[in-house]
Amino acid sequence: MSLLAIFSFTLPWFKVDGEEITFLTFLREFLLGSGGPGTLPGWMDPNSTAGTLVLVTFLAAVLMILLGALFGLTGGRAGPGMGTLGVVLFALVFRYVYGPGYRELLSVGYALAFGSFAVGLLFGGGKRL
User: Fold this and answer.
1) Where in the sequence is the domain holding 91, given as residue range(s)?
2) How many domains does the chain have?
3) Half-sphere exposure of 91 toward its Cβ, with a 13 Å CA cutoff?
4) Per-residue pLDDT tens for 1-25?
5) CB atoms within 10 A of CB 61
């Protein structure tokens, strides 16, 4: 299931202003963007009053998703749980930034990652980490 989550990184996770944004595109913009490393892309609303809170929770979610995929690939049951928690945190931050219309912004990559982590959590049999 973690392979499906990793595959979902190449699919569109968001639809913002008519543009589909993949998980990998977001990471590339965050790490190598025009504003320098560590700046949020413009579509993430970096000028909000709670920008620091949004940035910290968003980065925590991204880290949890990536670690969840890594742990899941190594056979650990905690990986899908961490990934599921990361995707939920990701959705909560998106909900906070974009308000009630955030569901229309989420795309197939998000759904595939959430589904694969949730199935891995429910049916995974890993005994390590």
Assistant:
1) 3-125
2) 1
3) 15
4) 678 888 888 899 888 777 888 888 8
5) 20
